[in-house]
Amino acid sequence: DLSSNGLGERGLAGLCSALLNNNSLAKLDLSHNSITDKEAAFVCKLLENNIHLKQLILSKNAIECNDGGMESALGYNDTLEVLDLSWNRIREEGANSLTKGLYANNGLKDLDLSWNGFSDRSCQGLVMALRKNFVLEKLRLRHNRMSGRSALAIVQTLQQNSSLTTLDLGYNPIESKDTPALLEPFLKDAIPSGHGIKDVDLSGIAVPPQFLVSLARLQTGRLLRVTYGCVAAPDGVRQGQTSFNNRRHQLVERTFEH
């Protein structure tokens, strides 16, 4: 664990060089080290050459993925299983580059892109990657800039993608009126019950009463857990957040796991 160490360019260069041929280290935590794309280039080179590393934590840095390094690294490396890039500065250009790497990757199982800047435009590449990638199991995208349109496009990829088990879209600017559509592919069996998806997280996102009706309609044979924020009243005013949340956790467990 080398998190919060202020490694700097020289320190990170030396570390990655030493690990190029290391065959015993399985997890590397470099979170909170103020790493930019310049320093991340050393990490990308490591990924291209080290086939033993399974988990890489790069959260809470200043990585933008604008130089194509991570795209190339993910294209080369099929042994890394967990990549955490949450709390970085990945915006449209970096998101497009990163998703190209994901498109070519055949090893990642757990990808955390929370607290970045994935917008509707940059999600287009992600949707293409998810349609082709049949290895990724967990995808976390909370606290980005995606609308209901992008959220629906991602959910619809589950019609082809049978490997994803956990999808976290919480705390994105998804409007309440757009949430019922996210359940439609499940209701219509466009997403087969045999596919892997088990957990859809919409935490922090208000849902209308219609959403709850759709949840109740989900077939009993489907094992699906759906988490959501408060319930929006028909006039758009949110019902009491605190009192509802106290009930919600019970309802999710008892009623909305199908």
Automatic annotation (TrEMBL):
SUPFAM superfamilies: RNI-like. It comes from the Eukaryota. Gene3D superfamilies: Ribonuclease Inhibitor (3.80.10.10). InterPro entries: Leu-rich_rpt (IPR001611), LRR-containing (IPR052394), LRR_dom_sf (IPR032675). SMART domains: LRR_RI. This is Leucine-rich repeat-containing protein 45.
